[in-house]
Amino acid sequence: MTVQRIELKTVEPAAYKAMFELEKYLATSRLSKTLLELIKIRASQINSCAFCIDMHTKDARHYGETEQRIYALNAWRETPFFTPEERAVLAFTEAVTLITKNHVPDDVYEEVSRYFDANQIAQILMAIVAINGWNRIAIATQMIPGTYQVQKST
After folding, report:
1. Using CA of residue 53, residue 40, residue 87, residue 68, what is the dihedral sign?
2. I need a surface site. Which of 9, 93, 136, 153 has the fewest CB within 10 A?
3. CB 42, CB 93: distance < 8 Å
């Protein structure tokens, strides 16, 4: 059985608070809660972060996301379940998460630019950066999947 190595919030509260401040900023952005959760789930799938997949699928359902779309997210290109805007964001999420593979190709950036203004793209980018950071924290510290409970105030 996996045991959590450290709890960042306890061991290094200032670092945890800094990461959480970015989350608070993103919560006030113009991006919908469900789009933010799709970004978080997709990046977490790519990074194989079980804790974050568990957390963000729970949050996505809380915000009204459907089971069908959550289950199909790993194969979003093969489904009709996502809007063109969501598809652009998912492609951008994958490119930024897998940045060492192909960087962020021009066509991916141009597609997301068709649907979102510069401010929204910056917010999307920061959401991708944040979840990739959280994934690395959760994986490195071996956070235990299944322990997260949805915060009713969110």
Report:
1. positive
2. 153
3. yes
CA dist 153 and 33 (Å) reads 13
pLDDT means per 10 residues in the chain (154 residues)?
A: 85 93 96 98 98 97 97 97 98 98 97 98 98 97 88 66
Give the chain as a DSSP string.
Answer: -------HHHH-HHHHHHHHHHHHHHHTSSS-HHHHHHHHHHHHHHHT-HHHHHHHHHHHHHTT--HHHHHHGGGGGG-S-S-HHHHHHHHHHHHHHTHHHH-S-HHHHHHHHHHS-HHHHHHHHHHHHHHHHHHHHHHHHTPPTT-----TT-
